[in-house]
Amino acid sequence: MSNVAEFVEERARRLVEQDLADGILRVTLANPPANALSVAMMAAIGSALETARNDALVRVIILSAKGKLFCAGHDLKEITAARGDEDRGRAFFERTMNECAALMQAIVTHPKPVIAEVAGLATAAGCQLVASCDLAIASTEATFCTPGVNIGLFCSTPMVALTRNVSRKQAMEMLLTGETIDATTAREFGLVNRVVPPEYLNQVVNKYAQAIASKSPLTLRIGKEAFYRQAEMSLEDAYRYAAGVMVENMMARDAEEGIGAFVQKRKPEWKGE
């Protein structure tokens, strides 16, 4: 590995912190105050997710952040610097948007459930990051916005995740006005699952993670994949697809064990198969 590559890899490692305990992997954005989704930050998060994909010790992933901001979206200083390139930044912009899209899809298609723990502001692509997670728990101090319209840049990519979480009218309200909404409004919109006092945020998120981590990892993988796939289908196709998934799930050893344990009134022993 070249010295440059080693430097980039080491920098990426410093941008996120990882902690694994009891099947729960906490990935923390650790570049305050903005925790911006620079190319390096997206690579660091993506690397953590990819490593966790095939790690049997990881059952659930929590995305959290250091500082007062959860994530300020793309690094505008990085974007501005790229305008000095011969192509006025086009190649860099394409790379940034493509890598961002890949990261968000990696969360949705990840075999392990991903929970966003939001203590502060999640703006633009930071809001997109929250919307891409399977669950989101927010502090009462958390806020959300897609303010690109205020600087002449419509939040088109955050829009993709946003419109898959909230109604069209609510999504357009956020996208057209660029205004910030509080955590309670975000819950009413369907962007987050729960809103809790700041002092209880970590505790509540861990409780959710522990409850999920206690389930069969095979069942979680099957269910998460099926959830997102059927959501894009017609009602008839969704039922046909889900019925097939259900049959295959019933054939799994973990389903046999789970049903047997329920009937016998004992705790199941998951094998992940």
UniProtKB/TrEMBL annotation:
Pfam entry (one): ECH_1
Gene3D superfamilies assigned: 2-enoyl-CoA Hydratase, Chain A, domain 1, Lyase 2-enoyl-coa Hydratase, Chain A, domain 2
Domain of life: Bacteria
Keywords assigned by UniProt, alphabetized: Fatty acid metabolism, Lipid metabolism, Lyase, Transit peptide
InterPro entries the record matches: ClpP/crotonase-like_dom_sf, Enoyl-CoA_hydra/iso, Enoyl-CoA_hydra_C, Mitochondrial_ECH-domain
GO biological process: fatty acid metabolic process
UniProt similarity note: Belongs to the enoyl-CoA hydratase/isomerase family.
NCBIfam families: PRK08139.1 (NF006008)
Purpose of the protein: May play a role in fatty acid biosynthesis and insulin sensitivity.
Name of the molecule in the record: Enoyl-CoA hydratase domain-containing protein 3, mitochondrial
